[in-house]
Every structure is written in C-alpha cells, then in structure tokens.
C-alpha cells in the first residue's frame, strides 16, 4: 500500500465529533460501490488503566492488572472504523450500517503498559440480495509484532441485482448445549458501557432516543455482548491466544434477562445467547484456543 493511502493519527479522534459528522454523511450515489483504499493508523496508543478496570467490571472480566481483556483493543479501533466510514469516497451512509459479524484473533496477551500501533482498513465488500457486507480489518502491532487482529463486518441495506437464495429448511429442534447460565441486564447498561467504550450511539442509551432511529426501545451494545461471553468462557480454555468468531442475530432490548448456552469440546467452545425463554437467538459463535 502506497504512502499516499495512509493516514497517521497521533491521538484518538473525538467520538462525539465523529457521530456529529455521521449524522450528515449521506454516502455516494452509484450502482457499483467501491471502498476507499486508505489505511488509518493510530500510533503509540496507550490505555487508561482506570478505564480498563471499569471495562473489566462492566463486562464481567476478573480484575487483572497484567493483561487487557481480549476485546479491549476494539475500543481503540472503533473511532478509526468511524473515520474510515466517514471518508468522502465511502459509498454508504454511516448511520445505515449494522454490525452483523465480528472475528477477533489474539496471538498473545497484551499488557496494559504496552504501547500499540492500531491500524484499520477496508478489506472486502460482498454483494447480497439485500445489500452489501463491508469488512473492516484491524491490526494491532507492538514493536512490529502482530499481537491482535479483527474483522468487523457491517451490513448496509441497499437494492442490488442479486436474487434471494432459497433458504434451507429449518429444523424444529435447536442446537443443544451442555451448560447454561442466565445474565441479568439493567436498563442503564448501554449508558454505562457507552461512558467506558465511547460508543454513544443513541440506540443504546434511552428508549426514547432509540425510537427516533426506528427501534421499539434501547438495545445492548453488540460488542458488550461479545465481551461478556468471552469473560465467561475464555478461562475455560487456559489460553491467552484465542480466536473468537460471532454472528449477531436479534437485538437485545433493555432491561432483560438472557441465556448464555455453551458446549466445550477440547480446545473449542460453541455458544449462543438467547432470550430468557430460550426461543430467540441474539448471538451465535465459537471461541477456540490457538
């Protein structure tokens, strides 16, 4: 990638300013969307240990001063994702994007005192019968070593020339898991997580603000849900080097109680999040030791 396609940042962009810009970003018109080739890098990133402790607490991780939670680097990358989607040649409106899939690979534990270079770029776009899936790849390097990477897939609804594929017949029975635990989510969860993560999207804050964007009420952050699952399951693998792949399903409206269901086989755990009754899926995924 040439030097002209790189943007180097020395400090984290303001989330509030990014959301303000996102409200007015309309995207480009055209039948064949193309993604910007620019790579955005936040150099010499350091974490606030107090915020890390707060993050551990709200996501259910054990307090640990020696390593970051596996999902924490996403907080550093999220403003860069918004910067990418606010580039003038990005073809879609940011506020229409929906986070539908997330994959994280951690090659070793990251210490809170370590200085990181966080780099993001668009890695793929796929046309579907309902719109487009857009992948953002994030890489975290420490003194040149790749220690963490992720792929966040965002979906935008848009008319395409693809016809809908026939859906396979759904079995009446759902996947059975050996283990189950219930999680109680308060109405204030989204506001408390927003203060720590910086993701202050109105759909997560209050019922009224969420209704302005077409939701019947405010919903939990998807990345909080992923972090909460990892907090419960990663220690069972006895490995800091892990890969976690999840697909977001139905939104989690707050307040509520949800089920975490899982089954472990050797160094792999399959899991899902469902509503309290166990009938509606919120998230499915797998965590594996490397």
Automatic annotation (TrEMBL):
GO CC terms of this entry: fatty acid synthase complex
InterPro entries reported in the protein's UniProt record: Fatty_acid_synthase, HotDog_dom_sf, MaoC-like_dom
Domain MaoC-like: 183-281
TM region(s), chain numbering: none
Domain of life: Bacteria
Pfam families registered for this protein in UniProt: MaoC_dehydratas (PF01575)
UniProt-listed Gene3D superfamilies: Hotdog Thioesterase
GO BP terms in the entry: fatty acid biosynthetic process
SUPFAM superfamilies: Thioesterase/thiol ester dehydrase-isomerase
GO molecular function: fatty acid synthase activity
Stored PANTHER family: 3-HYDROXYACYL-THIOESTER DEHYDRATASE HTDX-RELATED (PTHR43841), 3-HYDROXYACYL-THIOESTER DEHYDRATASE X (PTHR43841:SF1)
Protein name per the record: MaoC-like domain-containing protein
Annotated source species: Oleispira antarctica
